[in-house]
Every structure is written in structure tokens, then in C-alpha cells.
Here is the input.
Amino acid sequence: MRLKSETSELRSILAINLRRLRAELALSQERLADLANLHRTYVGSIERSERNVSIDNIAKLAQALGVEPSELLKDLTQ
Amino acid sequence: MRLKSETSELRSILAINLRRLRAELALSQERLADLANLHRTYVGSIERSERNVSIDNIAKLAQALGVEPSELLKDLTQ
Here is the structure.
């Protein structure tokens, strides 16, 4: 159960960071999706921790948001 | 082309970090695969930047290596 919990936790960390960075840049989900060359509903599902996002898409999101990819996986609540 | 290059770059960063951390812990690919509950050939292909690894598997690898997931995506060559 530990692995499963860790796994879901990282999806949540990514979701929280995406929402935070998107808010800081005043970007809609649609605009971020456009910038990252992803679908709007896909970005929405990532922000609801529903998706097992791939490293290539993490790279696209980081580039669109102007941050290092590692920033997207950082737990800032610790 | 920029996106594509960024994308491949992040796979390489993960590959380099995996190999480095695995060496530091003196773990074989097989042992790391066991610890992360992944297949040995899969870990090998990640270390050759061949795989579009998912966030859930990044979480598993980080847990197996005892590091924060964000550490696996950090570019230490910069």
C-alpha cells in the first residue's frame, strides 16, 4: 500500500504545482494546453491527479510554464 | 523542434540521474527493478532514454532509490 500511496501523492504534487504556476501566470487551462501542445481536457485531468502523465509531457508543461521540470515534482508543502 | 529536443533532454537527465544514484548505492539494474517493482529490462530501457516513463514509475524509482522524485529530473550538469 505504501507504493500506491506514494504514487498518488506525486500526481497530487504535480497537480498542485500546475495549478499554482498557472495561477501565477494567469493562464487558463486552455492557454496552458495550447502553449504545451496538449489538449485542454488532458491538462484538466492532470490537475485532478487523474493521469499517469509521462516524462515527455512533464517536459512540455515545464517548458510552457517557464520552469525546470524538477520544479513540477517538488513538494512545497513539506 | 525545440519541444522535441527539450523532451529528449529530460529523458537523458532522468537516465543520467538513475545511473548515478544506482552506482552510488551499488545496485544492479535488476536489484533496482526489484525494489521499484518494475521489470529489469524496463529499467535498462529507461537508462538508455528509450522510454516515455510515467509519473507513477518515477515515484516508484525515487522511492526505491531513497530520493525525492524531483531529484530524478534535476539537471546536475548545468
